[in-house]
Specification:
This protein has about 200 residues and is α+β, with helices and mostly antiparallel strands. The chain is built from four helices and 13 strands. The strands form three sheets. Strands 5, 6, 7, 8, 9, 11 and 12 form a seven-stranded mixed β-sheet that branches. Strands 2-3-4-10 form a four-stranded mixed β-sheet, with no helix packed on it. A two-stranded antiparallel ribbon has the order 1-13. A hairpin with a 5-residue loop joins β3 and β4. The radius of gyration is 18 Å and the shape is globular.
């Protein structure tokens, strides 16, 4: 799958070997030549990328109250893991929004991609979606209890700035966007295109 990542992203070298494959996480190792000419084994983790969607419905933003078997209910934005069957990162974002809250949108824009852990090849792709074109029932996984909540931009921004819930992946965006108009005017993310 092709995807955009930050220009300075740290990637697992093509020469690395996968020494452990788990359900979500994999461990990769490779021999790395050091500055003095010696060689040591270096290691990085990998996991499937994830998406976060800032959905705009009638000038309100879509939040979800998400409860899972290992985690108490908390506020977050719709999103989830990229599946191997997804055609693209955008397809994942659209699927997650439909599955978790039932919304379909006409307009989608990738506004940020983060690599939260430098020793892990894992990217969080943040999309803004607006112009609702459909709303149907949610289709939740067996391990999810999700309640959609529409909140004003000011309310969501305040929650993000106070680091309430699980909204940290969007802190940088909300910090610089004082209004919904500012958020919608964000430029499309530019990075380097890789195939992974």
């Amino acid at each position: 799958m092709k995807k955009l990542v930050p220009t300075g992203a740290l990637l697992i070298p093509e020469t690395a070997s996968c020494v452990y494959s788990g359900v979500i996480f994999n461990v990769h190792q490779w021999p790395q030549t050091l500055f003095d000419g010696s060689t040591e084994t270096f290691e990085m983790l990998s996991r499937p990328d994830t998406v976060v969607v800032i959905g705009v419905v009638d000038d309100k933003l879509v939040l979800i109250e998400d409860e899972q078997p290992t985690r108490a209910a908390h506020l977050t934005l719709p999103g989830g893991r990229v599946d191997p069957t997804d055609d693209s990162i955008l397809a994942t974002a659209k699927r997650e929004m439909r599955e978790e809250v039932g919304y379909s949108f006409a307009n989608w824009k990738l506004v940020a991609v983060h690599q939260p852990v430098t020793k892990m090849e894992w990217f969080i792709h943040v999309y803004i979606a607006d112009a609702v074109i459909g709303q149907g029932p949610a289709h939740l996984d067996a391990g999810e209890k999700i309640t959609p909540k529409l909140r004003s931009y000011a309310e969501v921004r305040q929650l993000v700035m106070q680091r309430q819930g699980d909204l940290g992946d969007t802190y940088d965006l909300f910090e610089k966007c004082l209004s919904l108009a500012d958020l919608l005017a964000l430029s499309e993310f530019e990075g380097k295109l890789i195939a992974r």
